[in-house]
Amino acid sequence: MTVTALGLPSVLKPAARGAAGEAPREGPLIDTFGRVATDLRVSLTDRCNLRCTYCMPAEGLDWLPDDRLLSPEELTRLLRVAVTRLGITNVRFTGGEPLLARDLEHIVAATAALVPRPEIALTTNGLGLKHRAEALAAAGLDRVNVSLDTVDAARFAAITRRDRLADVLAGLRSAQRAGLGPVKVNAVLDPDTGREDVVALLRYCVEHGYQLRVIEQMPLDAGHQWRRGQALSAEDILTALSHHFDLTPDPRPRGSAPAQLWQVDGGPASVGVIASVSQAFCAACDRTRLTADGQVRNCLFATTETDLRSLLRDGADDAALEAAWRSAMWSKAAGHGINDPGFVQPERPMSAIGG
Length: 355
Ligand code: SAM
Ligand code: SF4
Description:
Blueprint: E1 29-30, E2 36-37, E3 39-43, H1 72-86, E4 90-94, H2 104-112, E5 119-124, H3 129-139, E6 143-147, H4 153-160, H5 165-177, E7 184-188, H6 194-208, E8 211-215, H7 234-242, E9 247-249, E10 260-264, E11 270-274, E12 287-290, E13 295-297, E14 306-307, H8 308-313, H9 318-330, H10 350-353
Parallel strand pairs: 3-4, 3-12, 4-5, 5-6, 6-7, 7-8, 8-11
Antiparallel strand pairs: 1-2, 9-10, 10-11, 12-13, 13-14
Helix pairs in contact: 1-2, 1-9, 2-3, 3-5, 6-7
The structure holds S-adenosylmethionine (SAM) and iron/sulfur cluster.
């Protein structure tokens, strides 16, 4: 199977493709295509205080019941297994809205105490970050990505269904002041207003020293309303920006980073465009995911999960948890398949997987 990638290996290694047998018992967290997962995305909750139209319905969702959520102790144990036995070097906390997890500072501190210490990042909508940025930095958080799709207050309210732009901007400033940089801004653009929004967003980010990352909208909305061709593509986004800025490809090697970087007006400011749909980068994927209810997902778009919570509560030792995680990753598909005719959207929406 061919996976197109922007500036990345475009074909998965045929020699390793579909290797038979069981997952290796030691060494890196590898799949049958030879990709190694070193980046763990941990969802801390499926709840959220915004209702972004491309993610959640206006009325919210049926939240996971408390007894199915991992406790901080259970999560910390799985993080230890991931870092010390599976070679995870980067941990990103997300959700739902991870700042709604009251134990976040405690979980960050426990992660920072692991040896070897992983890089620790947070993806947040920024509400309340103003009050917690300092404590999170003190606990060991290294960086934040704050999601912001427009700097126009009325459009922000229309997209997120809440009038909270000022809180997000305050959160960004506090993150910068607390040293949680480089502070990145993640934007998913509205199909109607996005071409305008992205220009003002980039101006705002350049002015304040934030790095903008624009992400193509993916079929992960709770209402299954995503339609091919409706969302703005990377090409649409770059065309809109190039009417206002001089964009030149960033010469730095991209590695497994999903964003293709462009220097803005000769640099040093840059903007990243993440073409998750139109130019998938699955061939270079280095991610593994853990949901708030303790399920390992080997891909955002996986239709199966591996239940570590039940194993853990049934008394499994670290070796058994490690083996189950390895086996979950071993069966990772070559690509997300969004562009295949038989594509099926996963049951869980983005808010319950962890973006
Ligand atoms: N609530 C936090 C936030 O918004 O940053 C963390 C969770 S949110 C699910 C993580 C990221 O996923 C956000 O940057 C959001 O814009 C993005 N996202 C949500 N739904 C998406 C979709 N359908 N397609 C692409 N990105 C999406
Ligand atoms: Fe909440 Fe983040 Fe989803 Fe928006 S994108 S509804 S902030 S989880």
